[in-house]
Amino acid sequence: MTAAHESPIKVLVTGAGGFIGHHLVTFLKARGYWVRGVDLKHPEFAPTDADEFEVLDLRRWDACLQATRGVKEVYALAADMGGMGFISSNHAQILRNNALINLHTIEAARINDVVRYFYTSSACVYPEYLQQDAHVTPLKEEDVYPAQPQDAYGWEKLIGEHLCRHYREDFGLETRVVRFHNIFGPLGTWEGGREKAPAAMCRKIATAKLSGDPTVEIWGDGEQTRSFCYIDDCLTGIYKLMRSDYHEPLNLGQDRMVTINQLADIIAEIAGVSIVKKHVPGPQGVRGRNSDNTRLREVLGWSPEISLEAGLAETYAWIEGEVRARLGA
Ligand code: NAD
User: Fold this and answer.
1) Cis peptide bond upstream of 146, omega within 30
2) Chain CA centroid to CA 5, Å
3) Catalytic site residue from 153, 167, 230, 316
4) Distance 152 CA to ligand 1 centre (A)
5) How many angstroms is it from 96 CA to the middle of ligand 1?
6) What pLDDT was estimated at residue 172?
7) Is any ligand 1 atom within 6 A of the Cβ of residue 228?
8) Which atom of ligand 1 is least distant from the CA of 63?
9) Which residue's CA lies nearest to atom 20 of ligand 1?
10) % of the chain residues with pLDDT over 70
11) Is 33 a catalytic residue?
């Protein structure tokens, strides 16, 4: 990225105490960047590799000015977010917090002469009316309109996408926008209410294995479908998109769809345990969702390569270790 005599490019990763942000800091450091990480908290499970890590509340304007000083590029990952259980029941908090974070971060980046700005949107921007069937047609980028995201989280992400477009058109800020589809991997939240389906399922199955009680609760009938993308593919995609000249929103996810029941079966096989699924009421989100990766392949000449099984094997091993430590097993 830089010749030996050049000073490294300085970048900011917001949300660097969170799952994807923490991995992204490590990824960018390995490529020779100088990285400032910012978050409300330090990473929970491993020390950061950032050159500088500042604990700041990015809902605040002064914090955003401080965070973006002296950097050429911003990866804006900070968000108040979690799995279905969290985003389906905290609408006002999510909309307010994420709107403040995004409005202030991008304006501070402009004032501080940032050149490139990476914004992390979500598959949650896609309209509910296209996702009512488990055998859903994969979602193309242009399917987003007419807009009808399911939750406040998705509406705010859509506004964030527009914000990027207008800052690019009006102020020349080079914005890049990604729509993640269910990213998973080690070092992510696995308990406490904000965890997403793969981590929650790994925890439940590890608990079943270690406790000897094979019952595993699944929200709804478990026939709702999703695609899941491993963190290493996510990082590669982020980097390729940031270095590209493509500025429209782009899907980044796997395009292999599985039901939540199948997800549980795959993890149980990895864990080497027989489980008994117990279907209980719970938030399920849309009925079906999958990524159409046609544009991703056209734009980046690449699409995610790591299989669900390989990614889950890594994730399960880490979460089983965490559960063991918790249980003293
Ligand atoms: P995460 O919750 O692990 O990380 C987000 C981080 O933002 C957290 O560490 C949190 O403390 C921080 N944050 C929240 N409010 C803040 C504030 N006011 N000031 C500073 N920091 C604040 O989530 P993640 O999975 O790493 O997601 C990263 C980004 O990708 C988010 O924008 C998220 O919406 C988006 N995304 C993630 C997924 C996924 O599957 N993980 C899917 C779609 C979109």
Assistant:
1) yes
2) 35
3) 153
4) 15
5) 15
6) 98
7) no
8) 19
9) 39
10) 98
11) no
H helices, E strands: number in the chain: 10, 13
**CA R_g for the chain:** 19
pLDDT in tens, 79-115: 999 988 899 999 999 999 999 999 999 999 999 999 9
Q: Which atom of ligand 1 lies at the shortest distance from residue 100's CA?
A: 18
pLDDT for the residue 5 = 62
What CATH architecture applies to the domain 10-183+231-252?
A: 3-Layer(aba) Sandwich (3.40)
pLDDT at position 259 over 80: yes
CATH code, residues 185-226+256-289+306-324? 3.90.25.10
What DSSP character marks residue 214?
-
Q: Would you say the CB of residue 251 lies under 6 angstroms from ligand 1? A: no
Residue 329's pLDDT is what? 74
The Å distance, Cα 249 to ligand 1 centre, comes to: 18
Residue type, 315: T
Q: CA-CA distance, 54 to 67, in Å (whole number)?
A: 8
Which mutation among 12, 20, 66, 96 tests ligand 1's pocket best, with the greatest number of atoms within 8 A of CB? 20
Q: What is the pTM of this model?
A: 0.97
CB-ligand 1 contact for 125 (6 Å cutoff): no
Same fold, 10-183+231-252 and 185-226+256-289+306-324: no
Average pLDDT over residues 18-34: 98
Measured CA to CA, the distance from residue 21 to residue 14 in angstroms comes to 7
Domain ranges of the chain: 10-183+231-252, 185-226+256-289+306-324
How far apart are the C-alpha atoms of 82 and 99, rounded to whole Å? 16
